[in-house]
Design goal:
Helix content: 10-25%
Order of helices and strands: HHEEEEHEHEHEEHEEEEEEEEEEEEEHEE
Largest sheet: 5 strands, mixed
CATH class of the largest domain: Alpha Beta
Structural class: alpha+beta
Strand content: 25-35%
Strand order of the largest sheet: 4-3-12-7-8
CATH superfamily of the largest domain: Oxidoreductase, molybdopterin-binding domain
Number of domains: 3
């Protein structure tokens, strides 16, 4: 049997299943109309007069009915708002692009205000010609446009010891996925000249920000020349202040702490600096007390965002769309499986579109839910063949002392009322 025929059979089965679900949904809609629902049979206030003028809000804002779709923090997680974490409401979003206004951000000494006119970026160290760029200079270089996820290394970190936080926003919300526009870092490094650096295989760049914390990080020069970007736009508009306006570093697939905001200096060096953020922080402590070094890449991971604790099943029995997000710092997502029974059996979900390297993928599984108890999980696979592990598999290797790089399979328990809770299954 040919691959083409196999694909056709799969598509037909999927279509018939989808058609059945669509028919059930249509039946529900017809019943509402037959009952004389006034919202469809009578003229409503919003259709009896004029609406608001758009000039009242020159910059468009979400409608008041969506005012709950906002970033949130965990008060006990950070000492104060100057060093804080704000979680993306991933349970309330669909698609893959995260709006800037509700996108995860982490700051170590507060978000600073820096005008474009006052912005400067220095490249120095082992280069032929040390250079300083203005914002206007950066705009004149050939431009790149790529979509990438940014995930904090501590995302899901509080779940190592057991189910802690009840909601996808809190367990997995230290992430966002945006379309970045800017200049490749390679372009600027080559402008300064890398002859003085010699063999790049043992060279590094040290990047730091203009804020008080500077958040300096060391990056292998090979990575800097591969796919890193100096970004000054996100989702088509200027960066928000908390995302590093006017310029930030983009390090695709690697932990968010390396994506330095308010980027001010890049030094080419013959060794890593081993700064505070890459020694006492952002290292993975194992069960025997030793720590893994240079664990930058974010491994394949996924999460069901609906149903979930903050997104319970509200419409009762019948057609249900199970949906979530998957991503990998090593390449594109190729498949996502969903389990409704805690990992005993799995069904392949439908990817909304083919996976893109180092970007979020949206998945869907359409089911007919009749009020049965569910233990919902998802597991992602990427183009390297890596399969997302269970929490037990991670603990077997790394123990319980870790904070960072927890990419385990997450479980939501859904009861007959459609309510969901964060649980572990053995």
């Amino acid at each position: 049997m040919s691959d083409e025929f196999e694909g056709a059979k799969t598509s037909r089965r999927s279509f018939l299943t989808g058609a059945a679900a669509a028919g059930a949904a249509m039946g529900a809609a017809t019943s509402a109309q037959a009952a004389g629902d006034p919202l469809i049979t009578e003229v409503q206030d919003w259709a009896a007069g004029l609406g608001d003028g758009v000039d009242a809000s020159p910059y468009g804002l979400p409608i008041e009915f969506e005012k709950d779709v906002v970033r949130r923090n965990v008060e006990w997680l950070t000492a104060d708002t100057i060093s804080s974490i704000n979680f993306t409401p991933i349970h309330a979003l669909d698609g893959t692009i995260t709006p800037q206004g509700c996108a995860f951000e982490r700051h170590h000494s507060g978000a600073i205000e820096l005008r474009k006119e006052d912005y400067r970026l220095m490249i120095n160290g082992l280069v032929d010609t040390p250079l300083v760029f203005t914002y206007a200079d950066l705009e004149r270089f050939p431009r790149s446009q790529k979509t990438f996820f940014l995930e904090c290394a501590a995302n899901t970190g509080m779940e190592w010891a057991g189910a802690q936080l009840n909601g996808a926003q809190y367990t997995h919300g230290m992430i966002h996925n945006m379309e970045y526009i800017g200049v490749s870092l390679r372009t600027l490094l080559e402008e300064a000249g890398l002859g003085a650096a010699g063999d790049i295989r043992d060279k590094w760049v040290y990047v730091e920000g203009a804020d008080a914390s500077s958040n300096g990080r060391s990056i292998p020069l090979e990575k800097a020349l591969d796919d890193c970007m100096i970004a000054f736009k996100a989702n088509g508009e200027a960066l928000r202040k908390e995302h590093g306006y006017p310029v930030r570093l983009v390090v695709p697939g690697w932990e968010g702490n390396m994506w330095v905001k308010w980027l001010r200096r890049i030094e080419v060096m013959d060794r890593p600096v081993e700064s505070r953020e890459e020694t006492s922080k952002y290292t993975d402590t194992l069960e025997n007390g030793t720590s893994r070094k240079w664990t930058w890449v974010m491994d394949a991971k996924s999460i069901v965002t609906s149903p979930s604790p903050q997104k319970p099943i509200a419409h009762g029995k019948g057609p249900l769309v199970v949906t979530g997000l998957a991503w990998s710092g090593r390449g594109a997502i190729t498949a996502v499986d969903v389990s409704l029974d805690g990992g005993v059996s799995w069904q392949e979900a439908r990817l909304a579109e083919p996976g893109k390297p180092m970007a979020l993928s949206r998945f869907y599984l359409d089911i007919d839910w009749q009020g049965e108890e569910m233990f919902i999980q998802s597991r992602a696979m990427d183009e390297t063949g890596y399969v997302q592990p269970t929490k037990a598999q991670l603990r077997e290797v790394r123990g319980l002392n870790s904070i960072y790089h927890n990419n385990c399979i997450q479980t939501w328990h859904v009861n007959a009322n459609g309510e969901a809770n964060n649980v572990e299954v053995s």
